[in-house]
Amino acid sequence: MDSAIPMTQPKTTDSSSARRDTLTITDNRTAKTYEVPITNDTIRANDLRKIRVDESDFGMMSYDPAFNNTASCISRITYIDGDKGILRYRGYPIEELAEKSTYLETAYLLVHCELPTESQLKEWQHHVTHHTFIHESIKKFLDGFHYDAHPMGMLISTIAALSTFYPDAKHIFDPESRKKQIYRLIGKMPTIAAFSYRHTLGMPYVYPDNDLSYPGNFLNMLFRTSETRYRPNPTLEKALDVLFILHADHEQNCSANTIRGVGSSHVDPFCASAAATAALYGPLHGGANEEALRMLMEIGSVQKVPEFIKRVKAGETRLMGFGHRIYKNYDPRARIIKRIAYEVFDLMGKNPLLEIALECERIALEDEYFVKRKLYPNVDFYTGLIYQSMGFPMTMFPVLFAIPRMSGWVAQWEEMLLDAEQKIARPRQIYLGHDTRSYVPMEQRS
Ligand code: CMC
After folding, report:
1. Which long-range CB contacts under 8 A does 308-314 form with residues at least 24 apart?
2. Is there an atom of ligand 1 within 6 Å of 250 CB?
């Protein structure tokens, strides 16, 4: 966006109808008219500050709780058209990446803007793979968690703890340091996730096997028992890799906004991505996959779906895994995931909850409540069924979302840091609380 935008000007008279990229605003309190520049179909909120009743007036602000209609950044990473159900990373359609790419190649694309050449990919894979090991003290740290600690809690805390192991990560404006932290974050996510899982089972940790692929090694660290060499099942390895691609980034969602907001204070990327992971944990965000499966189990049978939908429509509960702030059409990721689900079920046997999920979808897609609100299955509706069939406990579902999202977070973080227009994130508020009042001593309070 052009940084030299002219200030909003009070306008006198101009009835010219020639097309200009400006917005004319009339303040009916003062009868003054202002002309505000439009760039990229956007006006700058700061331009509204010129709109004042008098000199003492702070100036007009826009009020946008939950950022429904506010662009907080200029980004070149991920494009979504929610009405058309389009998702692209750096211009590449998600469908093509899911079919032709690998997660690590996609992660490279997100971080480096372009698909890698063969040698660039080799080097990237080498660096990420050689940062999969974690310091032995982290094992002790993980041992301190209760046996039934939620693995997301362990993941969030351990990512934050990495900050204490790598104080060099504070040099956020050193490109070499940033590169190293990105290798570390993407490389160590599966290790921390798998160690957290093994901790909940009371099983010994399995060290990374650097000869395996990124998802293959993750499966090794999760499921290896007494075999000398773990060989991941190729169908499950591929399914996990595609699921990782689908979850890698999703533009300015709650956790991306968190890493940008927290990172804007110039804290190190371990602390910033721990905050993003915490944001992802919520049931309205990455925690929805766990909640969706709990919901299907609670419904219990296909016959009980209509009764459940009735409760949803009465506002008693939500149909988890449905609806999206941006998608007002079928989530393109959900379409691909439905296909993967059948590939995994062919191998592992059909998940008995599938019929309940399909019935929920069938009813919801025809029901006026959902149609009117444009509520479609999102990425989280079918993933839980796949993860469960692969042998993951429900508490691991949000963790499986967080692992690949790290590549999106670090891409968003770096883009924010290098954007000269960005500053520490600091929204305004509309204060409607008390005006000044004198302190009331305890004995005079009612
Ligand atoms: N079930 C029933 N009603 C719903 C649902 C749902 N899942 N989602 C939205 N609505 C209704 C909502 O009650 C509201 O109705 P009304 O206009 O009568 O008040 C209307 O649809 C708009 O909902 P909203 O909460 O204003 O929409 P939002 O854009 O703020 O929320 C959402 C988006 C994803 C948080 C929401 O759809 C939701 O809670 N879905 C269930 C949780 C879920 O699946 N989250 C995963 C999102 S995708 C993965 C990710 O990127 O994190």
Report:
1. 308/360, 309/360, 309/363, 309/364, 309/367, 312/369, 313/367, 313/369
2. yes
CB 189 within 8 A of CB 403: yes
Q: What is the H or E stretch that residue 10 is in?
A: strand 9-11
> Percent of the chain, pLDDT > 90?
91
Does any ligand 1 atom lie closer than 6 A to the CB of residue 411?
A: no
Q: Lowest mean pLDDT: which of 45-49, 148-152, 273-277, 337-341?
A: 337-341
User: Does the pLDDT value for residue 1 go beyond 80?
Assistant: no
> Catalytic residue numbers?
285, 324, 380
Residue 3's pLDDT is 37
Report the amino acid identity of residue 35.
E
Q: Cα of 66 to ligand 1 centre, how many Å?
A: 13
Give the model's pLDDT for residue 14: 53
Ligand 1 centre and the CA of 288: distance in Å? 11
The response to whether residue 171 sits with its C-beta less than 6 Å from ligand 1 reads: no
373 lines ligand 1 (CB under 6 A): yes
Alpha carbon distance 16, 352 (integer Å) = 67
Q: How many CA atoms lie within 13 A of 362 on its CB side?
A: 9
Of ligand 1's listed atoms, the one at least distance from the Cα of 321 is 44
Per residue in 119-155, pLDDT tens?
A: 999 999 999 999 999 999 999 999 999 999 999 999 9
CA dihedral 148, 151, 155, 158 (to 10 degrees): 20
Pocket-testing residue among 296, 322, 360, ligand 1, by greatest number of atoms within 8 A of Cβ: 322
Nearest CA to ligand 1 atom 34: 324
For residue 279, is pLDDT > 50?
yes
At 352-406, the pLDDT tens digits run 999 999 999 999 999 999 999 999 999 889 999 999 999 999 999 999 999 999 9
The three-state secondary structure class of 25 is: strand
10 Å CB burial of residue 11 (0-12, 13-18, 19+) is middle
- Helical spans, DSSP H, in 74-174: 94-100, 103-112, 118-129, 136-143, 151-165
Output the pLDDT for position 15. 53
Give the integer Cα–Cα distance in Å for 278 and 405. Answer: 12
Determine the atom of ligand 1 nearest the C-alpha atom of 315.
13
The confidence score (pLDDT) of residue 105 equals: 98
Report the residue among 305, 316, 378 best suited for mutation to probe ligand 1: largest number of ligand atoms under 8 A from its CB: 378
Burial class (CB in 10 A: 0-12, 13-18, 19+), 239: buried
